[in-house]
Amino acid sequence: MSVGSLKSALAAAAIRGVDEARARIFGHILNPTGQRSPHKILRKKLIGEKVSQWYPHDIKHDDPLVMARQEQERLSKLEMLKRRGKGPPKKGQGKQAAKRNRK
Predict the structure, then answer these.
(1) Closest-CA residue to 20 (of 9, 31, 11)
(2) Cα 39 to chain center, whole Å?
(3) Which distant-in-sequence residues (6+ apart) come within 8 Å of 22 by Cβ?
(4) Which residues contact 23 (CB under 8 A, 6 or more apart)?
(5) With a threshold of 0.85, does the pTM exceed it?
């Protein structure tokens, strides 16, 4: 064996070892032959029913008391803003209407 072939064999082995370590650390799949594999599809996020089953049911949407309290808080905040003059403008009095009236 010549020195050049030994060096290249050692370099290839070192690179292969680094690739294997990197795959192990970052959770990648090592595919040195480049064959087709399903890992790209399996890595994608699941959608639809399967994902919704993972999360617990949100009781906020079912409990009318919680929804009523949130609506009451929203209305009280809106009333406070209106008293300070910071509430939403009446229909036809907003920025777009002001721009149209200036022309």
Answers:
(1) 31
(2) 20
(3) 28
(4) 29, 30
(5) no
